[in-house]
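Tokens for NUDIX domain-containing protein. Go.
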Amino acid sequence: MTLKDTAEEWQIKATATPFVGNKTSVRTDDVVMPGGTVARRDYQVHPGSVAVLALDDLGRVLVIRQYRHPVRHKLWEIPAGLLDVPGENPLHAAQRELYEEAHVKAEDWRVLTDVFTTPGGCDEAVRIFLARDLSEAEGERFEVSEEEADMELKRVPLDELVRGVLGGELHNNCLVVGVLSLVAAQQGDGLDALRPAEAPWPARPFEA
């Protein structure tokens, strides 16, 4: 049997949005359970994100180190960012993030994997891309601010990142999922068998 997640939506008796922030909000839904009871569910409403596992010709992954205030950590991550515009093409967003955070462009793009980051408390969906055939982007570097002004940038061998993930040293969701998915793809049908960059994404529909 092939396992596959399926879209489904249970009846909502009432809904409210008690908080609206700059990028996300909090929603409260009264949801009808299978037995007929009603349970209240609070969750963060999120526009969605993209992340980029950029792999160079030497087998190194481009990673950045950034302060994340909610968890009070500086985390090693892969370039990532929000889908700022509803219906935005995720590939275009990923190319933008790779340029802005690393001043790098890539010629070969594939979908590595799609994930819901914290489905028990947030509706965020993330598409993680694999980017290869890297080169320096043209023009001036993007001007960063706030936490991004303190970012570090490195290229790290893939096996070193795997050791860090399994050793409990690296914790960023997209880095962990991306690195382990890349290893699985390499050991499986190969990277060229990954989905094309414009593959449909039901969680965040877009126009090519």
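The mean pLDDT is 94.
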